Amino acid sequence: xxxxxxxxxxxxxxxxxxxxxEGGREWLRQLTECLAPSxxxxxxxxxxxxxxxxxxxxxxxxxxxxRQKDGAPVLIVTPMTLHDSGMADLMRGHSVVEALRASGAGxxxxxxxxxxxxxxxxxxxxxxxxxxxxxxxxxxxxxxxVGLCQGGWLALVHAARFPEKIRxxxxxxxxxxxxxxxxxxxxxxDRARATEKRGDEKVSGRDVFAPLGxxxxxxxxxxxxxxxxxxxxxxxxxxxxxxxxxxxxxxxxLPAPYAQAVATHLFAANxxxxxxxxxxxxxxxxxxxxxxxxTLCGEMDEATPKAQTLGALALVGTPxxxxxxxxxxxxxxxxxxxxxxxxxxxxxxxxxxxxxxPLGGRPPARVGAAEDAPAAxxxxxxxx
Length: 384
What we know:
The protein is α/β, with parallel strands linked by helices. The protein is built from 15 helices and 14 strands.
């Protein structure tokens, strides 16, 4: 069985949904029945995909095309924190992968980070940047990158270390200048640093970052992140909430050296923003990053306040004419799974990625949406 077939076999099994009835108590009972323990210990993706590369810290996954344009591959760099990479392709209508493919961007690839085991116990930040660099080289050496949350921080680190390999960069809810605004993560990072004193080989993502976990708050957190109708009892709502909560229960363990590096350099010392971070033997200067950048922030982001993401634009050397920014009225996880954000803001991002304008060329002719694109994909309000 291929990697793609095995992945599909795990996530295409129908959920045991009973008939939907009115009443909150009945709704919660049905939801509980949907949430049987998952048989899958790894990430689950809604879209067909293949493992196209295997590296120590990740599996590089490729997603088939709906209407792909000729041009650089798009690499989605998922967060390397609490949950697995399935957040980028949760289900139809709640998928960054789907939104990008439907708008003609591509081909689409994704970093599927591995949970830490004994083989990764010595992996620090250098190891993850190195594997990300190998993945980009395997995709041809020049890519457009979409960084989600801390995946955006890692992508910007790569762009500063290897300035010729990323053509365009999208930062979505990414903590870049953590000194720009306080957040719960700066306090929780102390837990990760404590593992160094104990000599732990790995850090449980669930234990360290649990207070910000998507699973806490149960169905209300899922409704908020998915941007579903809280008064609806439709099968589609039940399935979406179930898929979200199953994902939220799959936590990643992190190698202790990597977790400590993130806690120290990203949150405690704000080293990337201050220009004091050294990666793979080189001190990083964000002013050397001059590629086109698009930022997407959540107005109610509880994990990464928008000032932390927007702070990147004052630190990089990218001219203002090559920068775009959007703020969506949502929280952190809705930036990646919210139905409205994916229909609106992500359509603008996809259009930006498929245009040659950010690179200084003439915009291409308009390309229509794919046949099976989600309904009502319309551009959001003009970016600043």
